[in-house]
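Hey, resending since the last one bounced:
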Amino acid sequence: MVRSGLNRPDVMELRQTYDRVGSAAPAQVMDGLTCLAGLYLAISPWVVGFTGFRSLLVNNLIVGLAVAALALGYASAFGRTYGVSWVTPLLGIWTIIAPWVIRGQPATTATIWNNVVTGAVILVLGAGAMALALRHRMPARTPRAAGETHPGEW
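The structure tokens again:
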């Protein structure tokens, strides 16, 4: 069943604009780096060696896989996933604060450095993806002539 609102010319044009933005080289590089950061976060308990921290291990695995999945969505269908681009920076912030927030064993220097650096990378790359989405979401505004009003405006 096709919804009639999705076949409107303005919606189709907007989707094409987002797909064009998502296929640009800077966006693809950013999405690729975000995917790699997410995959690293997922395997970081084994790389850094804090597999004894069960709660943080599970957190990093789930958040890392979520970040990688979001990045793959941005890279493959930016026109359909731009609306959730705000989630990636939030996951970056969560990754930064997770060693102190998650209950269990006290955080070590390795867990703190790992999560802060990886979270900062995810935050910056996610903010970049969000900025791309917002930049191309806003219509170009033209300056109005003095005193010009439009219906419904005061």
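Residues 101 and 140 are 42 Å apart (CA to CA).

Sorry for the duplicate.
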